Amino acid sequence: MCVASCRPPVYYPKPSGYFRIDTPTRHEYLLFDRPGFPYSFEYPANSTIMDDTVFNKEGFNKYWVNMYIKDLGGIINITYKEITKEQPLYKLVDDSWGLSYFHHEKADYIDQKATTNENGVQCMIFTIGGNAASRHQFAATDSVKHFIRGALYFDVSPNADSLRPATDFLLQDIEHMMLTLKWK
User: Tens of pLDDT along 145-160?
Assistant: First the structure.
């Protein structure tokens, strides 16, 4: 005598995972040197720089640009301000620090890296740990006339683990931009 029994198969859900981010195999750069702009720098060849149309409706911020990194779904907002009596350096620096430290509630940590490039530009790069909206932010100045601020964003909910390959790759590009930044 033979007895057989069948059970329906049991299905188990797959564990949560992250989509794969393929970064370029190497860093390549182009020169951003638009006529009339008070600055120039080298930027990633896999990105496109366009004028900021959101905050430049009145023409007051004509040197503000956005760098779109289509392959990685990121954007780097770059804002420029001239140091004046109405906008002294200390106010611009305070505003930049305030915008970087605005993320402290979501941040696990905030690291700062200061450097001066060979063109005499003083640069500060902020790395914000955790699930903050912007992992990398930066500021640069000559302390006399020019001030630039920038921030990296992605068009997704912030998740530091899933975005790590892209943010780590783009940090090298941001550092290269800061090292090649020149005032005109």
Answer: 999 999 999 988 888 8
